[in-house]
Amino acid sequence: MHSYTLLAPAKINLYLEIVGDRPDGFHELVMVMQTVALCDRITLRPNGLQEFRLFCHHPLVPQDSSNLAHRAATLMAREFPRIFANYGGIDISIDKYIPVAAGLAGGSTNAAAVLVGIDLIWELGLTRPELETLAARLGSDTSFCVTGGTVICTGRGEILDPIAPLTGLWVILAKYDHLSVSTPWAYQSYRQKFQDTYLSSPEEFHHRRQQVSSGALVQAIAQKKPAAIGKFIHNDLEKVVLPEFTLVAELRQVLGDLGGLGTMMSGSGPTVFTLCSSQEVAETIVKEAREILVAPDLQFWIAPITDTGIQVT
Ligand code: ATP
């Protein structure tokens, strides 16, 4: 049996709209998700035991069975008990480069990598749609992370509708090390504040999805118009996170004023991203932002937009 090392990339939300409540307690969402080439490295080694072991040295990442990567492995063992009994368990090592609890789907992409890697080690031959269906059981963003690219994600995020890949652009990611936003808190706050604006029926959800599918942002992506893409990015969660986290609001303002195609918070934050037409533009903006925002724990990353999801190295 082989060992595998996989690259698990982060995502940003180019669009995030909360359209309603769902009976299962989640929200009905319309999102445009985009893979970014800032990757964690996941190594999977068969261990000959009847258990999965997890190794990750990041202080904010759980080392036990609550880790999403471990949960992904447990799901595979439950789905394929005889194969697990034959092939045995796996040691999962995670080298973290994606900031944690940052709105970049770090845990979800690790889980997706484990599903893809175990499929290879156990020689299951699962298709991408089969892996995405399994992934949906682990979290709302995990299905998208399996294949990545530029995708309209609806339902609670697990219904995937890939669109023309967005390539050639770069992104700045900026985050204060000491800040993290709880995703459940952000959604609950949004519900408390804006529930009266929600749509209520599956027909309405579907109609809203169609509007976004044919709307300004998706059209700008299809026509490869970077300036229009930057103009039409949108995130409903900014309405609750920015007033509460004034440092994030200030960071967004400063980056936006420095140029780039568009600046926004990703997911539930607190990471702010700026889309840029080139690596050079991104580097100039980061240099200028560092001069304005003097904070030792403010970190920047520059990465290309990519259409590649989980990758086997
Ligand atoms: P999303 O954008 O999908 O909402 P996020 O980027 O905001 O996710 P994560 O980095 O996935 O957040 O971390 C959210 C929580 O999940 C953290 O509190 C972390 O402790 C926990 N967690 C569990 N497994 C992992 C993992 N493999 N990597 C990172 N965090 C993990």
Account of the protein in words:
InterPro entries: GHMP_kinase_C_dom, GHMP_kinase_C_sf, GHMP_kinase_N_dom, IspE, Ribosomal_Su5_D2-typ_SF, Ribsml_uS5_D2-typ_fold_subgr. The protein has 12 helices and 12 strands. With 313 residues, the chain is α+β, with helices and mostly antiparallel strands. The model has no long low-confidence stretch (mean pLDDT 96). The strands form 2 sheets. Strands 1, 2, 3, 4, 5, 6, 8 and 12 form an 8-stranded mixed beta sheet that branches. It has a 4-stranded antiparallel beta sheet with strand order 9-10-7-11. The radius of gyration is 19 Å and the shape is globular. The site of adenosine-5'-triphosphate has 21 residues, from helix 1 and helix 3.
| Major sheet | 8 strands, mixed
Helix-strand sequence: EEEHHEHHHEEEHHHHEHHEEHEE
Given helix and strand content, the structural type is alpha+beta
Radius of gyration: 19 Å
Instruction: Work out the helix count.
Output: 12
Low-confidence stretches: none
> What proportion of the residues is helical, as a percent range?
25-40%
Strand content of the residues, in percent?
25-35%
Distance between the termini: 16 Å
Number of strands: 12
The kinds of small molecule bound in this structure are: adenosine-5'-triphosphate
Overall 3D shape: globular
The overall pLDDT, averaged over residues, is 96
